[in-house]
Amino acid sequence: MHGFQPWNPQFYINPLYLPASGDAPHQVFNPDTREPIGLNPSCTKDDVHTAVAAANVAHTLWRLLDTDQRQALLLQLADSMAADSELNRQIIRQMTRELALCVAEARAELDHCAAVFRYYGALADSDVPAPSPSGAAQCRLRYEPYGVSVHILPFTLGIALLGRTLAAALAAGNSCLVKPAQNASLSTLAFMQHFAGLPAGLVSCIPGDAATGQWLLQSSGTHAVAFTGSVGAASAVAVTCAELLKPCAIESTGRGAMIVAQDADVALAAAYGARAAFSRGGQSCLSIQHFFVEAQVHDQFVRHFIEHTRNPGHDSSSAVRPLISQAARHKVRRLVRDALAKGAALLAGEQALENPLPGSLQPPVILTEIDDDMVITQEECLGPVAVIRRVSDLGAAAQLANDCPASFEVTLFSKDPAHAVQLAQRLLSARVRINPPPVPNHPDSEHHWTLSQLAGDLSPRALDAFRRPKRLLLGAAAAPATQQAPVQAFAAGLPE
Q1: Three-state DSSP class for 290?
Q2: Within a 10 A sphere around the Cβ of 415, how many other Cβ atoms?
Q3: What is the reported pLDDT for 476?
Q4: Greatest CA span in the chain, whole angstroms?
Q5: pLDDT of 391 higher than 70
Q6: Structural domain boundaries in the chain
C-alpha cells in the first residue's frame, strides 16, 4: 500500500502507507454536509512499535548527516509545501472536506508550514561546536538531538502547528512520530506525502485515540514530546513525561482575551474583536472569546461589535464555519444556555439555539451581562461565542484576563501607549498585543493574517525543546595531533 487512500485505514512510515491493524475504524463525515469521506484508522500497539523502531534506525543516520545536506532537505520540503502542485491541491481538498475549511484557509496553513520549514531549515547548520568559558584549556559546546520525538496535535490549525514542532525537531536532528487529532487524521495523513523523500522511517504518522498517544509517550524508544491541546490532556501528558523523566514541550492554551480602555479607538477595537472571535468558527487558540470593556465605552463597543458580526456561511468571505463536529456544537449550546439561565443577555445567535442549522453550522453568539458563576467564564468554548463584560476600570480588567483559563494571549486597545505597556506588565499571559493593525478586508489576506499571528513565536530557542547541550572539556596536556583525531571527531558529532 503505497499511496494515501482515505477509505483504507492506514498509518504512515515514510515513504510508505501501511495498513493499520486496529479492528474498529470509524467513518469520517464532512462537518458541513455530513457526507462520509473516509475511514479513521485505529493503530495498535504493534503498529506503534513498528513506527518507533523505524524512527530509531532513521535517527542514527539523520543526526550524523552533514548539516548542509540536512538543511538542503528541509528547504526542499519548504519549496514542496509552497508549490502550486497536484499534491498540495489533494491535501487542500482533504482539509476542506474533513475540517470544513475553505480553500484559502487550507492554503494558508500549507504556506505557513513552508515558511516555518524554511526558517528552521536555515538554522539546521547552527549546531556547530563553539568556545565556552571554562577552566579547561579547551571547552567545546555543541547541541545533540534527543532522538525520537513525539508530536501530539489538536484538530484546530493542526497542519500549521505540526509544521512548527516538526520543522524544529528535524532541524535539531531528531526523527519524528506524529499523533494527529482523531478528527483531523485523514488531513494529516495526506500531508505526510511531503516527507516521502526523507530517509526512510524519519517521519511517521500514527492515528488513534488517547491510548495510542500513551503508547507513544511510554515507549522506551521515544525521547522527547511536543504537545499542543487542551489543558486536561496536557496535564495527563505532563504527568506521564515527569514520571519517565522525558523532556516535553507543552502548549496548552484557552482562547484569548481583549481589554478595551475608555480612551481606545472603539470602532477599530470592535472590528478587530469581531473578526478575531468568529474567524474560522472560533475554533482556534488564536481566537478571542473574552472581552473586558471599560464601562464608559461598553455600550458603544457592543453596538460596533454587533455591526461587524458576520452572517454564517461556507465560502471564502464568511467568518463562520461549521464546527468540527455536532458534539462541538452541543458544547457551545450547553455553555450558552447555562449563561442565559444565570442572567446573561443574548445579543446574537438566538435563532440557532431554537432551530439548529444543518450539519454542525453554528452562527455567531454574543453574550453580555456576564457573572463569575457562569460556566463559560472558566471553560473554553471552541466555537463562535463572544463574551463581553463591562468592567469598572483597567485593574479589574487585568484581573479578569488573568483569571481566564490558560489564556495565552491578551489584546489591548488604548490610545495611551505608556499606560498600555504598564498594564501589559500586570498580565500573566505569554503574549500581549497592543493596538494591533486592522484585519485585512480581503478574505484570502484574512486567512494568511490569522496564521501570521503564529509567526511571532518562531525563534532559534524552539530548537532547545528537541536537543540537549554537551560540553567536551580537553585538559591542558593535549595528546599529540595524531592521537587527537578521535576526540576531534567526537566533538564534531561524528563516529570515531
Answers
A1: strand
A2: 12
A3: 61
A4: 85
A5: yes
A6: 10-252+458-473, 255-442
